[in-house]
Amino acid sequence: MILSSEDFYHIRSAARDRGSVRGATHQFYRYPARFSPQFARAAIEAFSDEGDLVLDPFVGGGTTAVEALRARRKCLGTDINELAVFVSEVKSTILRESETSELRSWLPDFERVLKISRTHDTSPQWREKGYFRHLEGSETWRHRNIISAALSEIEKLGCSRLENFARCVVLRSAQLSLDGRRNLMSVSELRDKVSKHFVMMLDDMDLLREEIGDHRGIPTPTILKCNSNQLHEHETVTDAGAPKLIVTSPPYPGIHVLYHRWQVNGRRETPAPYWIANKLDGDGERYYTLGNRHEKELKTYFANLEAIFSSLAKISDHDTKIVQMVAFSEPDWQLPKYLEVMENAGLVEIGSQEADEDRIWRDVPNRKWHAERQSRKAGSREVVLFHRKAKRPTQLSDLPGRDHLGN
After folding, report:
1. Does domain 5-93+221-256+294-389 fall into CATH 3.40.50.300?
2. Nearest CA to 315 among 197, 224, 383, 210?
3. How far is the C-alpha of 352 from the C-alpha of 335, rounded, in Å?
4. What is the residue extent of each domain of the chain?
5. Model pTM?
6. What is the phi/psi pair of residue 28, to 5°?
7. Looking at the predicted structure, is the pLDDT value of residue 40 above 80?
8. Is the pLDDT reported for residue 399 higher than 50?
């Protein structure tokens, strides 16, 4: 099976689009290593129709979920990271006009409580669990208190949909104020960010609702917290039937990306985003990246990857297209190994005989990998891979004119 040249060039153009992530609710949170909405939308348009099921087993920041919703597809997203599940759910849950109006009316009262001295009841339990790590210092305790005051007030909203939206506002604002900054924003700047982002995100939500129109006939994307190597055993997944399209971006082999921490004050890691989202941090870096990037031959990574794509093959049929965007720290050996894993999982690579290149490669604009010792050329290039489920080998009993005894 080959791709049409039209589909190949459409996806290539979208993959190489150097524009910033924008539109809909995509700017609600800067999830690490997210791929562009243009790429997700191009794959959705090329390989599915309205009402079809689209699956992303590494849903991350919810790009696929939002674009599937906008394209009027059913969507199922899964991730092992509770923070990813939270962000994806907020971004793909359309608030009613009455709900955004309620939040706009509530905003002035919310802004008034953003004070350093405000007391609250939620801090002790989170401090004991270590979620304030590196937020207790002389440069960060004021930011922590502002965030605590915000979360305490948000809990009074009494509606999980509204609370989660407001938490995401604080999450976005605190990330820009603290994460990876040489000089932290001042407390007044953090307050301003919260107010500014609250209004901007409400506007984005209103625009998304207007774009979709009567969304009652469009199912809200289902986002599950689960390990993707068990999808073939998950009732919600199997009940949904074979997806028409699987589009995703797995953790990249040999490349260090922090999916579960912010870095403050000189790369000091803090699990604070989980506190803000009211979620639990599952484990360390290796848990979220499928293995230790320093391990020889990345055996754990590739074993986990094979288990995941074997599970995906089991829930797919021969019409399911699988589209991935991947990067490698050492592509010369890791790409062939990656393709070998796909084959072992029961998948076969497909391409376009009419295209002027074998695969789609893209240079990643403004990508800041944490592992600077890796080759800049390798770490800043991604490739798009197309697969489908392999047909089983022909058996003797399948041949015409043969009965089950081969006579």
Report:
1. no
2. 224
3. 19
4. 5-93+221-256+294-389, 97-212
5. 0.91
6. -65, -30
7. yes
8. no
